[in-house]
Amino acid sequence: MRRMTTQSYIEQRTERTRWFLHDRFGMFIHWGLYAIPARGEWVRNAERISNEDYQAYFDGFNPDRYDPKSWAKAAKAAGMKYAVLTAKHHDGFCLFDSALTEYKSTRTKAGRDLVREFLDAFRAEGLKVGLYYSLLDWHHPDYPAYGDRIHPMRDNEAYKREPGGFDRYLDYMHGQVRELLTNYGKLDIMWFDFSYGELRGEAWRASELMETIRAVQPHLIVDNRLDASGEEGGSIYSDNPTPYAGDFASPEQIIPPRGVTDQAGRSIPWEACITLNNNWGYSAADQVYKSAKTVIRKLVECVSKNGNLLLNVGPDAKGEIPQPSLDVLEEVGRWMRRNGDSIYGCGPADLPKPEWGRYTQSGGKLYAHLFEESIGPVNLAGLAGRIKQARLLADGSEVFVTRPWNAALYEQDAFFNFARPEHFTYPLPDERNTVVELTLAEEDG
Question: Which conformational region is residue 23 in: left (phi greater than 0), alpha (psi within -120 to 50 degrees), or beta?
Fold first, then answer.
């Protein structure tokens, strides 16, 4: 694959990610055989489970309550605009009907192509769709095992591989990606996971793989993990990105303190992938769920830094999203229905972060996200004379822009409050996040 100039790469990336940076909020779905032991998606690694012992979960996999239409409706109602499903995770089990393996959902008691059903259901709700594909494969006989850093059999000498076997695995992996690209219609995202140690970049034949993607589905956006792990970002952060650097960065379980930029300070499309509790895959004992307030505020934080939030759910072995997850999503959705204009199509404001919360902006609309009550009027630092109109976004009601008697020292600042007299303290209309839509006057000059 011929290396393009950095400018050309950025221009193409910008065009491909235009919808992505508009939509801002997506659902990640980690689901597979590991939902049966229900101790998280890395259970094979953590407990050093062999293929033979893990086979019991394949034999017992029968998610008879799997209804992707209900998943899609829950995602849409939450205000999510796209979703990404684990077509194959590290354990090598495929939720799609691959011709290259028998280790797939159609060979289980389920007897169903679960990926196809997912794609059909989410497309029917008008959501964009993506597939996660693990570059790792702990089931495949040619994937490095003994001596590998993370393989379940890393300490078992009986799992030494012959030196030339890895190329056979790469043929298999590339073949499965091509199946996903050619057999399942238009995809919007391909989410690879992940590089580590010496297994990165061209060790995966990454240029060849990216060339295949661009030839078959040129619009498709790809994450940065052909080149990087979840710990560091790879060449997408540099001034000289590789052909397989990807279209967006994927910080995991962290929201970057200052957003994501390359060495020249240019903003890079990015998406924080975050669990709703403390595990990606279903974990029956993990009941530590983030509140709807936390999700709302963290979504706002991502957008205020020009990023997206990909929020994960882990369906159980029967195929149902746990009720606590659905409850959080439902509450987030109620907030989004009234305040989504401050998220979709928005990005950072060219203003310092306010003490009371955060700003997002779209053109001449500035959105003030208030996370805490003010003593008296709310201060809008540096915006004196620039506020044409202020409305509570949730219901369109007037918010009072004023210069109260006790603000004489702050000539450069504007102020608003929710009632009169303006210097009194009033409770926030929504303690999770009150959004005030500010229509700005154009600056002189």
Answer: alpha
